[in-house]
Amino acid sequence: MVDFGRLITAMVTPFNDQDEIDWEVTARLIDYLIEEQKSESLVICGTTGESPTLTDEEKLEMFRFAVKHAAGRCKIIAGTGSNNTKHSIHLTREASKLGVDGLLLVVPYYNKPNQAGLYQHFKAIAEATELPVILYNVPGRTVTCLSAETTLQLAQISNIVATKECASIDQVTEIAAGAPEGFRIYSGEDATGFAAITVGAHGIISVASHVVGQKMHDMIHSYVNGDVTQAARINQQLLPLFKGLFACPDPLPNPSAVKYALCTRGYGNGDVRLPLIGPSEAQREFIQALL
């Protein structure tokens, strides 16, 4: 089984002033996340990467570029999920040709399939590839929630190896209690990541790790190594930033806040694609204070 590690960053997609992918910044960002922020894997073109406004061509070029530039220093996970099963299979097959290490498949959004439909959707995509698959349950964005029961059914499929869980700590607990050996749970919520690890999650697929990844790495490994007090202390220190990146005045949708935070550190111009917009002056001041 591919080891994706305990700290995975859902990487932003940098744009230039012409609203195109900025490849120079992308290269520097990959280096920074691996070398300074201790990311063990990167999710490319997930929600934080603004997947809804990227074309298939842009996604495939991002996958190709990330694989080449990371050069084995971390694992590359391609976001190939959508609410169209055939399209997801097509994008998955194309991504598989580019050397990615795994796939992240989001719960279908808008068309609201039932649990039987969700099972068949993920099963069909998993059967179309030999790559390891991470499920992505984020009901705050998709409306539909992948139940713990359906997750555990899907975990019986050999190459469905993990889930990114954003529903609740109760759901993390239930999945952890019933998961087969080797199936891993990742928290998809920075603010509850530490709590998820204490009830059985393996690690965190993070947004905040763009700016505090080293500290998050220390928090996770302190807990794993038995220093629960130190891990809790680090989590307490980071919690205002975890919450603040998603709770600016007049809350900003992800990744507007973290892109601005990266901009202040010299990684890109902070631009997002419409219909997302960047932070207001008050929001910029709030983010700067968090940092």
From TrEMBL:
The record marks 47, 110 as: Part of a proton relay during catalysis. InterPro entries: Aldolase_TIM, DapA, DapA-like, Schiff_base-form_aldolases_CS. The active site is at residues 136, 164. It catalyses: L-aspartate 4-semialdehyde + pyruvate = (2S,4S)-4-hydroxy-2,3,4,5-tetrahydrodipicolinate + H2O + H(+). The keyword Repeat does not apply. It is found in: Cytoplasm. One of its GO terms (molecular function) is 4-hydroxy-tetrahydrodipicolinate synthase activity. Pfam families: DHDPS. Its EC number is 4.3.3.7. Pyruvate binds at residues 48, 205. Keywords: Amino-acid biosynthesis, Cytoplasm, Diaminopimelate biosynthesis, Lyase, Lysine biosynthesis, Schiff base. Pathway: Amino-acid biosynthesis; L-lysine biosynthesis via DAP pathway; (S)-tetrahydrodipicolinate from L-aspartate: step 3/4. Catalyzes the condensation of (S)-aspartate-beta-semialdehyde [(S)-ASA] and pyruvate to 4-hydroxy-tetrahydrodipicolinate (HTPA). Belongs to the DapA family. HAMAP family: DapA (MF_00418). PANTHER family: 4-HYDROXY-2-OXOGLUTARATE ALDOLASE, MITOCHONDRIAL, DIHYDRODIPICOLINATE SYNTHASE. Homotetramer; dimer of dimers. This is 4-hydroxy-tetrahydrodipicolinate synthase. The gene is dapA.
